[in-house]
Structure formats: structure tokens, C-alpha cells
Write a structure and sequence with these properties.
Structural class: mainly alpha
Helix content: 55-70%
Largest sheet: 2 strands, antiparallel
Number of helices: 4
Radius of gyration: 36 Å
Length: 257
């Protein structure tokens, strides 16, 4: 059986509610930027591929013209018995064909490499936009969309209901007729039950941040991720979360001031 739930500082729960809301907003903006970036990358790749195809077509046309010129030169050649050579020599036309063929081969290679890169990129994009199924998880787009539209509102709603109940309990007289006389104190309340001072909050915050940094630093060697060295700010005004008063755009969350 549970011994109950002890809340030391209701204001910390209110701050947690705000942070959850801001996190949902930040993730929505990040996903929107990522989707726009992915679309932009795909458009650039397709455009570059079109340019390569155009250059390849032009190179093939030059090769065809050079081959026709060489064929015409061969047709006009005559054998000079005195010199033992054919005239005209057609050396220039042969070099033109060789140069044009080399250019075609280079553009053909670029086209094949580009198609390979685009194929790999489109595969990653399709996985990112995959809605998922019964046995396969969704891609990043739908994962973040679900977090912003469902998980974040549900989490903040549950937390707000809990905060409201906590406020009701904190304002209720649970002592019955055993009122505490002025100048006395509740002997059942320890120092650990009192709300944190600002100094204690700052120390706890620094300790938690350092713990996350240490954990990510040890993991970064294996997973190649960045250290936790950035402050969480409002995505709209750029202020620290505790100082922000912006309205949430993507999730319906009540902010505690």
C-alpha cells in the first residue's frame, strides 16, 4: 500500500507544466523546419539532376555531330600513293570524337551517381514520413506530430488537474479540531517537506543539468551526439522559459505565471 504522495513545491509542478508545453511547441517548430528543409533538399537534388541530364543530352548531341563530321571526313579521303597516306588525315575530327565521348562518359557517370544519392535520400525521406503500422513504428514526422497533438496536451491536462487538486489540498484544513496555536509548528513537517528556497532550486537545477551533461558526454563517444550545453528558450520570443509569456501555437496548454 502506498504511503501517499508528498509535494514539496506546487510551483515546481507549474513550471514543469509550462516546460512540457514549451517543449511541444519547440518540437512542432523543429519538425516544421525539418520538413521544409527536407522538401528543399529534394527540390535542389531534382533540379541538379535535371541540369545533369540536360548537360548529358547536349554532350551526346556534340558527340553525334563529331561522329558525323568524322564519317564525312572518312568518306572524302583519298589515298596518296606518293606519300602512302590518306588525305585529308581526319586527325582533328578523330580528336573531336574522342573529346566528345569523354565528356559524355563524365556526365553519364555524374548522372548515375546523382541517381544513387537521390535514391538514398528519398528512402530516408520516405522513412521519416512513414506513418507506421501495427508492427513498425512511425517516422519522425508522425512521431513528433503525435507528441504535439496528443501526448503533450494529454500530459499537461493530467498535470493541470493534479496541480488543481494539490492547490485544493494545500488550502484545506486537514487538522480537524486540533488547531495549531500561534507561535507553534507542525511537528510532523520536516525541513524536507518545506518548499525549496531559490538557492536550493538553483543548486538542484545545476546538479540535474550537470548530471545530464555527464551522461551525454559518456554516451557521445558511442552514439556521436552533442553535449547538453544549451539553455531551453521559448521558440517564439527567444526568452528563457521562466520569463516567457507567449501563447502556445500548436498545443492547448494553460501557462502558469
Amino acid at each position: 500500500m502506498s504511503d501517499g504522495l508528498f509535494i514539496r513545491d506546487i510551483h515546481s509542478l507549474e513550471e514543469l507544466n509550462n516546460i512540457i508545453g514549451f517543449t511541444g511547441e519547440a518540437m512542432a517548430k523543429i519538425e516544421e523546419s525539418v520538413s521544409k528543409y527536407i522538401d528543399g533538399v529534394q527540390q535542389v537534388l531534382d533540379k541538379q539532376q535535371d541540369i545533369i541530364r540536360q548537360n548529358l543530352d547536349e554532350a551526346r548531341q556534340r558527340l553525334e555531330n563529331a561522329q558525323k563530321a568524322l564519317s564525312a571526313c572518312y568518306s572524302s579521303q583519298t589515298y596518296d600513293e606518293d606519300s602512302g597516306e590518306y588525305t585529308p588525315s581526319c586527325d582533328c575530327e578523330e580528336r573531336d570524337v574522342e573529346s566528345a565521348q569523354k565528356e559524355v562518359d563524365e556526365w553519364q557517370k555524374k548522372l548515375e551517381e546523382g541517381e544513387k544519392i537521390i535514391g538514398e535520400c528519398k528512402l530516408e525521406i520516405d522513412e521519416y514520413n512513414d506513418p507506421g503500422g501495427a508492427i513498425s513504428p512511425p517516422g519522425g514526422h508522425y512521431l513528433i506530430e503525435n507528441m504535439c497533438q496528443s501526448q503533450t496536451p494529454n500530459a499537461t491536462q493530467s498535470l493541470q488537474e493534479f496541480i488543481a487538486e494539490a492547490h485544493d489540498y494545500s488550502q484545506s484544513d486537514l487538522g480537524g479540531e486540533r488547531d495549531i496555536a500561534p507561535g507553534t509548528y507542525n511537528s510532523f513537517v520536516s525541513d524536507d517537506d518545506l518548499p525549496m528556497t531559490e538557492e536550493e532550486k538553483a543548486a538542484a537545477f545545476d546538479s540535474n543539468i550537470q548530471g545530464v551533461k555527464d551522461e551525454q558526454e559518456s554516451s557521445s563517444r558511442y552514439y556521436d551526439i552533442q553535449d547538453a550545453n544549451r539553455a531551453m528558450c521559448c521558440p517564439s520570443c527567444g526568452r528563457p522559459l521562466q520569463m516567457c509569456s507567449c501563447n502556445i501555437m500548436h498545443v492547448d496548454v494553460n501557462l502558469y505565471q
